[in-house]
Design brief:
- The chain is mostly beta strands.
- The chain folds into 2 domains: 82 residues, no CATH class; 122 residues, Jelly Rolls.
- The protein is 2% helix and 34% strand.
- The chain has 1 helix and 12 strands, in the order βββββαβββββββ.
- The strands form 3 sheets. Strands 1-2-3-4 form a 4-stranded mixed sheet, with no helix packed on it. Strands 5-12-7-10 form a 4-stranded antiparallel sheet. A 4-stranded antiparallel sheet has the order 6-11-8-9, with no helix packed on it.
- Strand 8 and strand 9 form a beta hairpin.
- It is elongated, with a radius of gyration of 22 Å.
- It starts with 35 loop residues before the first strand and ends with a strand.
């Protein structure tokens, strides 16, 4: 299987991951102007949309897929030559933190039907401002409902200096299909505080 690659020699090959009269039978059909086409979720195996070797990126999780089938019968499989381990960073403002007991923040979007997110680790960086957070500073990272709490922390928000800290976990293993990873504080909103928070989640997308 030859993957599509980035080339710009022939303007007629723009968007050549799609089929068309100018592409079918073209000996250069596996070349395209932009080597990776991004879609909102995982690519679907719909006939007639992608040529063999087409590479498509899932914008939700950053995973690249290649069509190892044919145009009439596409079959997308994840590629990358690695373990499939991903890391994402989400920065929370003070306003978000002060409302974190009422409005959870999404760290990793839902992966799509037939998939679930396996959280491997969670690390946080508390960027201290001038006032530490007080009351309801117990952070919880969860998937789906609260029954899916996987990682917890009781130190970051109450810190009076900038600190990096690894969350405790997994306290629970939740394998619910097609649910996001979110963070909240336990019980209620924090009463005070003005720092910001960076959360790093390392995870894998598991296909059922």
């Amino acid at each position: 299987m030859n993957y599509q690659v980035n080339v710009k020699q022939d303007p007629n090959l723009i968007y050549a991951w799609f089929t068309g009269a100018e592409i079918v039978g073209n000996p250069y059909a596996e070349l395209c102007y932009e080597g990776i086409y991004t879609v909102a979720g995982a690519p679907s195996n719909i006939a007639g949309l992608y040529i063999p070797g087409a590479i498509v990126k899932n914008a939700a999780d950053g995973i690249d897929y290649v069509n190892s089938g044919t145009t009439d019968s596409p079959n997308f499989t994840a590629i990358g030559g690695g373990s499939g381990i991903l890391t994402t960073k989400v920065s929370l403002s003070s306003a978000q933190i002060l409302n974190l007991g009422s409005v959870p923040v999404t760290l990793v979007a839902s992966p799509g039907v037939g998939k679930f997110i396996q959280i491997l680790s969670v690390t946080g960086r508390m960027n201290f401002g001038t006032v530490a957070y007080d009351t309801s500073t117990h952070l919880q990272v969860f998937t789906g409902a609260l029954a899916g709490i996987s990682f917890t922390d009781q130190n970051l928000l109450g810190s009076r200096f900038t600190i990096n800290y690894a969350f405790n976990g997994p306290a629970n293993v939740n394998t619910d299909e097609d649910v996001p990873v979110q963070i909240q504080v336990e019980l209620a909103n924090p009463a005070t505080g003005d720092g910001t928070l960076d959360i790093y989640v390392t995870y894998k997308i598991i296909t059922l």
